[in-house]
Amino acid sequence: PNLRYPWYVALVSPKVSTTLSVSCGGSLITNRHVLTAAHCFPSEDGVSPESRYRVVFELVDRCTNPNVPDSTISRVDVNPSYNSQTLGGDVAIVTLQRSVPYMPVCLPLRNSIKIGEATIIGFGSTLVKSAYPCTMQEARVNIFSRRQCARSGLSPEYSQIPGTICAGMARGGIDSCDGDSGGPILTVDSNGVYTIQGIVSFGEGCARKNLPGVYTQVSAYRDFIDRSISVHRSATAYPC
């Protein structure tokens, strides 16, 4: 299919079902690696990270087209500085069992921050504790400056976590929400090239006035990302 976001993947239950339950999203950054959130792989329940999900591609409608291409997971690298209490360092790299024929998304330069309009996508709920939609949702939000984030209504312990950015609309009404975890926040340049700026991490509710969502800042973790994908020399990234 002609997918607008070919790098988007969904992490779903390994059990085959007529309707896919999307637990987390993710983004292909090479033909074998997915960038997602560390909190999508909790260690407390004893389930091995590699057997927790299968990774599906080309997902447009989780309720009517569950027979989409997929891959099992061969390895999960959770950022060693991830803190499950504060959600600082909330980033993980999933290595697929096989290479896939989809264009990866571009990675940002180290420690760069892009302020302004961005796009969020995913299969998460559109209201707190509401049913997940069948079709992929997308919305436009604004990435805040660090000063704007600090001045928002977010609690200081959330708005000032190193290696995070916040985004949303000051008036509320548009945001990532439950089920969007691990998915991307993207910017696009004048040539139509998308770059992943952040990973959906957490928020204080969803789409509330003056309470932007919090995202892992991808550029702050380029060392971890590059180190994780360098293990597979055959993995190819998009030449951004």
Automatic annotation (TrEMBL):
InterPro entries: Peptidase_S1_PA, Peptidase_S1_PA_chymotrypsin, Peptidase_S1A, Trypsin_dom, TRYPSIN_HIS, TRYPSIN_SER. The lineage of its organism: Eukaryota, Metazoa, Ecdysozoa, Arthropoda, Hexapoda. Belongs to the peptidase S1 family. CLIP subfamily. Keywords: Disulfide bond, Hydrolase, Protease, Serine protease. PROSITE patterns: TRYPSIN_DOM, TRYPSIN_HIS, TRYPSIN_SER. GO terms for biological process: proteolysis. Residues 1-230 form the Peptidase S1 domain. This is Peptidase S1 domain-containing protein. GO terms for molecular function: serine-type endopeptidase activity. It comes from the Eukaryota.
